[in-house]
Design a protein that fits this description.
Structural class: alpha+beta
Largest sheet: 5 strands, antiparallel
Distance between the termini: 23 Å
Shape: globular
Radius of gyration: 16 Å
Strand content: 25-35%
Helix content: 25-40%
Bound molecules: coenzyme A
CATH class: Alpha Beta
Length: 185
Amino acid sequence: MIEIVKPTLEHLPSYKAALERGWSPDNVRLEEATREQLVVIEEDPVAFLAGLDDPEAKGPPISLPDGTTVPRLPGFRRWIWDGEAAGSIGFRWQHGTAELPPHVLGHIGYAVVPWKRRRGYATEALRLMLAEARAVGLPFVEITAKPHNPASHKVILANGGKLVGHFFEDAAYGGAESLRFRIEL
Ligand SMILES: CC(C)(COP(=O)(O)OP(=O)(O)OC[C@H]1O[C@@H](n2cnc3c(N)ncnc32)[C@H](O)[C@@H]1OP(=O)(O)O)[C@@H](O)C(=O)NCCC(=O)NCCS
């Protein structure tokens, strides 16, 4: 099966190879994020890894797809690992509240490399990440998914998620319709 690992130099070559195969760990910025990460990994791998683990939000502001920047939330990323890089799962939150600013699309986001999909990896990775969300004291997490993403809906529902509503993504993302799920912790 899989584990979710804190990214280290030991995991990096396999992760980099997945990026080089064209996979993107970022479901919003897609290839742009892949290219950006390959550059940073080349320039300063240690800084790249450090930036993935930021529970105090020390990193730079976040760029949204329309180019606006917003303050970074506390967060960290784990890599989905089956002996090699199989995907990425991120968690971000605000201290002291389960609320998120309107431009933040959910507490948890994930992506599995295309060549390792449909093996239950995302379902298990989310299950493992929920323990981390519980550990920071959140009573629930929200996860958003596009209406036409049945695989993601199944991952959320298999982890006890309930659909709580439809909404329109912030204008900075283009305003598309999306679904909001909630998982009580
Ligand atoms: C969504 C995603 C993470 C699922 O990863 P995965 O490891 O393949 O998911 P799982 O193997 O845990 O599958 C979960 C369920 O979805 C089903 N599923 C997987 N791919 C599917 C597809 N393309 N169409 C319909 N159902 C699908 C699986 O069969 C499984 O259902 P089951 O439990 O009834 O068998 C992966 O498809 C992905 O990375 N997509 C691109 C990024 C993305 O959309 N991320 C989520 C944003 S909200």
